[in-house]
Design brief:
Rossmann fold; 7 strands; 22% strand; globular
């Protein structure tokens, strides 16, 4: 059972069918862009044949589609936007791996108990959409068996100005959706508490990419 009735969550309203269709067209035309491609490459480094993927807030599914094409065995995509779930499933069918992806619509934190651990966990521009960062990172880190990759806004004045401008636009449009800048040190601390070690960190003007690994026992 999903955590929200169809169409009634801020995520469904913000990331609607038109928004999802536009992003799917961009993915089909150009493939993963920018830090999304870097995230995929970092998660796949060293080979991922037979590995499992958990793609949280996967959008059109760029991360799990590309990792499945690179050798991953199976994926789970959890997304609070039903429109994104629909286009991600459509793309999985087009690429011929729909039988290897399980889709769950709803709030990951509410659904986490239904999700199995995975070798590779990805959150690409997800925690910036979620107020309770600590719960999201904590629940997702628990499920990461090997690597954990995340893309989110830099904890900088420029990042905060950018998010503040976006939120002002959202208020003017009467949207209840909000974006957030969470502190990098707090994200790192939660992941470290779960035994995950940061192995890679890259930044752009606004965004940052971090990859964490669970050391071999």
């Amino acid at each position: 059972m999903d955590c929200c009735s169809p169409g009634d969550s801020p995520f469904d309203r913000q990331f609607d069918a038109r928004h999802a269709a536009r992003h799917l067209r961009a993915y089909r035309q150009k493939g993963p862009a920018g830090l999304t491609r870097a995230l995929i490459e970092a998660l796949a480094a060293g080979g991922i044949d037979g590995k499992t993927v958990l793609d949280i807030g996967g959008g059109v599914g760029a991360v799990h589609h590309e990792l499945l094409r690179s050798g991953a065995a199976a994926a789970v995509d959890v997304d609070a936007s039903r429109a994104y779930i629909s286009v991600a499933r459509e793309e999985a069918e087009r690429q011929g791996h729909a039988d290897r992806v399980h889709y769950l619509a709803g709030d990951f934190v509410a659904l986490a108990d239904e999700v199995e651990p995975a070798d590779l966990v990805a959150l690409d521009r997800v925690i910036c959409c979620y107020a309770d960062m600590a719960a999201l990172v904590d629940r997702s880190a628990t499920l990461a068996l090997r690597r954990y990759g995340i893309v989110y806004p830099r904890d900088s004045w420029l990042g905060r100005v950018g998010v503040a401008f976006l939120n002002a636009q959202l208020r003017l449009s009467r949207s209840s959706f909000r974006a957030y800048v969470h502190r990098t040190a707090e994200v790192d601390a939660i992941l470290a508490a779960h035994g995950l070690v940061k192995r890679l960190h890259r930044t752009t003007l606004i965004w940052q990419l971090a990859i964490y690994e669970r050391p071999a026992a």
